[in-house]
Amino acid sequence: MTSSTTGTTKTEPAPTTRRLRIGIGGIGIESSTFCPHRSTTEDFRQTRGQALLDRYTWTRPDADLARLVEWVPLLHATSLPGGPVEAESYLVLKDELVTRIREAGPLDGLVYDIHGAMSVVGLTDAEADLTESVRAALDFVGTPEGGRPMMSTAMDLHGNVSRRFAEPVDLLTAHRLAPHEDAWETRERAARNLVRCLREGSRPHRAWVQVPVLLPGEKTSTRLEPAKSLYASLAGIEKLPGILDAAMWVGYAWADEPRCEAAIVVTGEDAALATEEAHKLARRYWEARRDFVFVGPTGTAEECVERAVASTKRPFLISDSGDNPTAGGAGDLAYMLARLLENEELRSGRVTAVHPGITDPVAVAACFAAGVGAEVSLSVGGKVDPHHGGPLELTGTVVALQTAEAKRAGSAGGAYERGCDMAAVRCGGVTVILVERRTPFHTLADFTGPAEGGLGIDPRTFDLVVVKIGYLEPELYDMAADWLLALTPGGVDQDLLRLGHHRVVRPLYPFDEDAYEDGAGPELKPVVLGRG
Prior knowledge:
With about 525 residues, this protein is α/β, with parallel strands linked by helices. It has two domains: about 20-295, no CATH class; about 300-485, no CATH class. The protein has helices at about 50-55, 85-105, 125-140, 165, 185-200, 225-240, 270-285, 300-310, 335-340, 345-350, 360-370, 405-410, 445-450, 475-480, and strands spanning about 20-30, 45, 70-80, 110-115, 150-155, 170-175, 205-210, 245-250, 260-270, 300, 315-320, 355-360, 375-380, 390-400, 420-425, 430-435, 465, 480-485, 525-530. α2 (about 85-105) runs parallel beside α3.
């Protein structure tokens, strides 16, 4: 068999007991093509050398894999989700990763740590473009024994898996929980599957099929059915004789690209069984398409504020879902803040609310110039994404400031942690936290900051907590006495039909809800991708 990429001969790897040499690297971001923000190299946390190896527990010298593998750190770059990546920035990162592979010398394999929903200005399938170049670099260096290195990819279940992307990859797996509490487990599974195949001399078949369904993550949380049972079934499938792994992707709903739809990949030595299981999974997913519901009760921004104010449950959390920066939103819309300040109970201070994470470096700088205790008049938000409402004019009192240095000093080193100046401004009963750069608020520590120099805001002391997020991350979920998902406008609007997709492959549910009303449904025939 000959590689369509390189022209090299592909052969089955031989079993080995020698110590393997495996690289680790990748580029990961979730990019909304409906968001006017543009991501650059400055948005990516770039990790190399020992710092890259330190990200994982299974690369440590005392881990059981240490005697089996020499881990070779390449480049790992990850960013807070946002708008598409600027072409020049993408090329800088891509070129470094490819160059580091070519300079690494012979490699038995690569743990390819990516997200799967990266969009790049000018490209229609960024992951495929990157993966083809990575594959070519691996083929160039070869293995220590002159063979073809294997690629094992760990992905977010909100990624996209086109055939062009899947072809050059030997092993694919994805998260099985949303929220992604198993993200690190997924990476370890990708690594262990790779080591197992290399030691056994196995290059399994991959049964790949796309399902013409595209749903937002807030409708596919594994906290609820049918996603809960669908994803729970994957562990059982991979235990079948002849099967190595089963993975399911819901796709990324906020990119308007042909690859955006659900996908199934079942990997194993038994091609017929992998195909059968992939088909059954795809059919189950298709048949359940109308059963997926939002992970929590929903309403318009106005409805959610009214219901939260009237409730006796405290704190009451509201998700400003359309401008969620951890899904790709701009993070600078003041739409929800305006709805809060329109409410008399909140405006008067009889009910209190905290609303963090509105990005506005100019407003933050004005607060720092004025100082804590000063009254400020600000034009807040609506500068990155003016299409969904412009700036909001407000007057309030600066109640807390936090510098980027203090933020970084108190950081646990999360993937999105870059540090930025923050300012808290109180207007009646509403405290808004303004940030210098797009920043998520997922934990209590994000509100309080470090012991020294932090904002010192405890969200549990407010009646309402309004966060720019979709489904609640675990700490927020545990904090909430009650919760509503506000269907707000923005670059990651939950109402896909009002976003204006026009490049996705049709028919596609829910855009073409009645396309298969004749009962036949899509064919959903898996394709068995060639082995190495």
